[in-house]
Amino acid sequence: MFRYYCLNPIAQVGLERFRDGFQKTEDISEAEGVLVRSASMHEMELSDKLLAVARAGAGVNNIPLEKCAEKGIVVFNTPGANANGVKELAIAGMLLASRDVAGGIAWVKEQAGNPDIAKLTEKEKKNFAGTEIENKKLGIIGLGAIGVKVANAAKHLGMEVYGYDPYVSVDAAWNLSRDVKHVLNVDDIYAECDIITVHVPLLDATKGMIGEEALEKMKDGVILLNLARDLLVDEKAVLAALKKGKVRKYVSDFPNPVTAGQEGCIVIPHLGASTEESEDNCAKMAVKELMEYLENGNIRNSVNYPNCDMGVCDKAGRIAIFHKNITNMIAKFTAVLGGGGINISDMTNKSRNNVAYTMLDVETPVTADMIGALEKIEGVFRVRVVK
Alpha-carbon distance 56 to 296, whole Å? Predict the structure, then answer.
């Protein structure tokens, strides 16, 4: 019986997908799996029983990835599950920034009770006039699941779309409209586009990527959207650019004291993936990942370990070993098992940066002594008997 714990409310449609053999617990210290959305795990004591964490969403900055890796705890996310919700908000953000709909609505509220509001509207509406997005140049930085959906939707709205992503995946390339112009230098996005939207993960290399230098390269009156992560943009530099007219509007999904209530800023209360459909999709995907790993040891969509899939084990046993990505580890594993008379019928080894994951299907069950010998090998973080 595997036990799971929910750190945040998780959509019931996802939890209902747990098969027999999985049970919800109210004691996190007893859980082999944890489901989480936004709750921070950085200060938490991680139980030795914990095997996996599934984030029902894309961002994992609330999870201590390195600490989990060193304890042999696999961390999953759900890429693409909330992509449509964020895509729709990006399109809405472009429209809100191009047409001063929010300003017009605020003006109407101020006129509540004015018997001459209809007449006054015809005089005042010019203050909220905007521009259409058709035929405008849209630059998309990041062509992952969300960026591709934004690009394709924008093409259907008649926009000229430019995409930049030096690491675009094969799947993304297949799904991307052939009419999207794939540029190789992000400066081309800055120089050419009327609207720019950012859809990249927050990494050391991307933190603050939209700063004073990038803003200076943009067209005067550019509209900038950030629905990805707040720290991707130097927002103090954006405020300065707004004041001098370099930036026309800044749309952000991350409220903070820097931008909240500032002229030219449209700040949304983190609604990108806050749709019923996105939450359902993320929950279903997270549960599927957790079950597949706990039952079979297969890793799909991990952010701290390599993806690895050996299907369902039809042999006497399966051993999963988490270890440092260093030389001669496989030889040491096979020596231990061979010394115990255990024949390996199938195996795989995958690495990701400094860590690696090895799965071994064996023809006879392994003993506790053999597991102990594997655990004592220098560089091994954890040994798990899957079956």
Answer: 21
